[in-house]
From TrEMBL:
UniProt protein name: Xyloglucan endotransglucosylase/hydrolase
Summary of the function given for this chain in its UniProt record: Catalyzes xyloglucan endohydrolysis (XEH) and/or endotransglycosylation (XET). Cleaves and religates xyloglucan polymers, an essential constituent of the primary cell wall, and thereby participates in cell wall construction of growing tissues.
Organism encoding this protein: Oryza punctata (Red rice)
Residues spanning the signal sequence: 1-25
Pfam family, one: XET_C
Places the protein is found: Secreted, Cell wall; Secreted, Extracellular space, Apoplast
Keyword Cell wall biogenesis/degradation tagged: yes
EC number: 2.4.1.207
Length: 332
């Protein structure tokens, strides 16, 4: 083996050896070997919330909280054109109705009318009911066409840190929870400009979503239970800085592909845990958007796009209270 081909392997081994076991597993399965976590000062800047953003552990852990005064948020210092972005997040526990924690990419501050956005939104719940996770995609200001999906989780996201990741390349976007891909968005001819294509920054926020987050706004934030604290760590920005050369910018052909095993894990997750899908929402979209490939699995969903089965985690505790035609929760 030539010295040339050995070096990257050696670097990967050294990096893996210096990371905790779970992160090392991530290096194998998801991450480019050169990805490293940044401290807050190295990569981020506070957006709002003054003392409701607190740094711990040499700036490697960030707590953002919501109380009656304010929420809080931070963003990456730079903008990126494609890449892998992730954080390990532990959500506030107990009664969290109306609370929204968002981990997302956006360029809304730069392109007011033609912005792109990729979202993880965590929607709080009343005591005893699970948080739900929503993902969404906007491209070139396509805010009239929501592409929301919601899911329950197979674990309690308030008990431990779990990694939430977005992999974005020129042709494909993959959302992950830990090592499981949960959603793949492929650029199609129709999506064209509605596929995010301009450099974006990474954001993390916590805020009051009383008007929509829990059962369509029925349950509001109760500040008796404040502060609501969301903890972030392992903040990974592995992207092409905006303006870098094309080979990086395109993300590489292999950047956002999935193995057969990953794909079957994704299908399994979606069959068990998806509680809403825009592709099944016949109230909002009488004809599914062209990128939707709706098959026999559609029978598991009501015309509102909500899953029929209340067995799916995140929806089993009771009936929904949203009126048909409410439209879909939209946050930004
Ligand atoms: C994005 O939207 C703007 C304004 O609607 C439009 O002029 C532009 O052509 C769109 N970009 C692409 C790549 O289609």
């Amino acid at each position: 083996m030539s010295r040339c081909s050995l070096l990257p392997i050696l670097a990967a081994v050294l990096l893996a050896a210096s990371l905790p076991p779970r992160a090392a597993a991530m290096v194998d399965s998801l991450l480019p070997a050169s990805a490293t976590a940044l401290s807050f000062e190295e990569g981020y800047t506070q957006l709002f919330g003054d003392s409701n953003l607190m740094l711990h552990g040499d700036g490697k852990r960030v707590h953002i909280s919501l109380d009656e005064r304010t929420g809080a948020g931070f963003a990456s210092q730079g903008a990126y054109h494609h890449g892998f972005f992730s954080a390990s997040i532990k959500l506030p526990s107990d009664h969290t109705a109306g609370v929204v924690v968002a981990f997302y990419m956006s360029n809304g501050d730069v392109y007011e009318r033609t912005h792109d956005e990729l979202d993880f939104e965590f929607l709080g719940n009343v005591r005893g009911r699970e948080w739900r996770v929503q993902t969404n995609v906007y491209g070139n200001g396509s805010t009239a066409a929501g592409r929301e999906e919601r899911y329950g989780l197979w674990f309690d996201p308030t008990q431990d840190f779990h990694r939430y990741a977005i992999r974005w390349s020129h042709d494909t976007i993959i959302f992950y929870v830990d090592e499981t891909p949960i959603r793949e968005v492929v650029r199609t001819a129709f999506m064209g400009a509605q596929f995010p294509s301009k450099p974006m920054s990474l954001y993390a926020t916590i805020w009051d979503g009383s008007s929509w987050a829990t059962s369509g706004g029925r349950y509001k934030v109760n500040y008796k239970y404040a502060p609501y604290v969301a903890e972030f760590t392992d903040l990974l920005l592995h992207g092409c800085p905006a303006g870098s050369a094309p080979p990086c910018e395109r993300g590489g052909a292999a950047a956002a592909t999935m193995s057969t095993g990953q794909r079957s894990a994704m299908e399994k997750f979606r069959a068990r845990h998806m509680t809403y899908g825009y592709c099944y929402d016949r109230v909002r979209y009488p004809a599914p958007l062209p990128e939707c490939r709706v098959g026999a699995e559609a029978e598991a969903f009501l015309p509102s796009g909500e899953a029929r089965s209340t067995d799916r985690r995140g929806s089993r505790h009771g009936k929904r209270h949203r009126r048909a035609g409410d439209g879909v929760d939209s946050a930004f």
